[in-house]
Amino acid sequence: MKKHRNFLFLFFSIISISGCVQDKAPIRIGTNAWPPCEIWYVAEQQGMFESVPVEIKRFSSWTDNMSSLYKGNIDITHATYFNAVYFHDKGEAGTIILSTDVIQGSDGLVVRSGFIEDSGFNSDRFRGKLVAVEINTDEHFLLKKALDEYGLSEEDVELRSMTSYEASEAFINGEVDAAFVYEPFLTQAAEEGSGNIIWTTKELPGYMIDVLIVRNKVLETRRKDVAQLISAWYDAQDYIRTERGEVFAVMAANEDMPADVFEAFYDGFTFFSPEENVEIFNSKAFRARLEEMNDFLLEHNAITQKAEVSSLYSADIVEELAE
């Protein structure tokens, strides 16, 4: 009888544990059409998430992706330093846990060729001209930095708020004098609109860096699972490096791009290791940039109060991975 009781106890214990695993909610990862986002699909296909249930949700716009996290509809998303500051008071709190990658020169200012002379860009002639840029975004912040380089302020030009796609189209159609956009719209605007790219983020390293943000509630309750996903992120990058031909064909198809074009695009990214992340998070420059974005957003009434910079990021997981 005792043996039967022990067997039944063991049986129901297994059923209970099994039910708990099955009932564990998937961690929802938000993605967009952007090469680094494809890394998650590789990790999923190769079973690198292991026992952590994951649901990857693809969005058509970065804004929808970001706002979904702060509404609690997804748990992890790709963002930038700027967006981490911008969304800090827009809903549920989130934390930067990884600086994922950077592609230098992917954002920039394209102007009509008429503003270019033998000596370069004529900033005086540019005063009062119409510039397309999405207001209160990374591009708006970077446009201000670009204007500063040429001795201009936002008050010296007329801004029209448009998405990068809309701004590129407006420039090509001759509706605006300049546009601050990201790739591939930047190159497209210059080529099809007979424009000149006069400034890109190559002039401003360390600002336009992609990050992963996790909802605080998820980070607090499922920290081990989140750490496993970050480990899978790096495992997938290793797999991509060794299986380039096979993997790039699949990744390119998801992005609706020819494989060779996607491969060249992907290779333009610099991905940060856990050790590099530790250096970034511990640097004064990192915190100074967040504060600069804080000030910009407050001045433009995009946030109601400045974010406490120290609460925006955590180096705990990357420090463990770097050990």
Can you put this structure into words, describing what you see?
The chain has 323 residues and is of the alpha/beta class. It folds into two domains: 2-102 and 208-322, D-Maltodextrin-Binding Protein, domain 2 (3-Layer(aba) Sandwich), CATH 3.40.190.10; 107-203, Periplasmic binding protein-like II (D-Maltodextrin-Binding Protein, domain 2, 3-Layer(aba) Sandwich). It is 48% helix and 19% strand. The chain has helices at residues 2-23, 38-45, 62-70, 81-86, 123-126, 138-149, 164-172, 185-192, 216-221, 223-242, 244-255, 259-267, 274-281, 284-299, 316-322, and strands spanning 27-31, 54-58, 76-80, 94-102, 107-112, 116-117, 120-121, 130-133, 158-161, 178-182, 195-200, 210-215, 270-271. The strands form three sheets. The protein has a six-stranded mixed β-sheet, with helices on both faces. Strands 9-8-10-5-11 form a five-stranded mixed β-sheet, with helices on both faces. Helix 2 (38-45) links the parallel strand 1 (27-31) and strand 2 (54-58). Mean pLDDT is 91; it is low at 1-22.
What key phrases describe this protein's structure?
D-Maltodextrin-Binding Protein, domain 2, 5-stranded mixed sheet, 6-stranded mixed sheet, 2 domains, single chain, alpha/beta, 323 residues
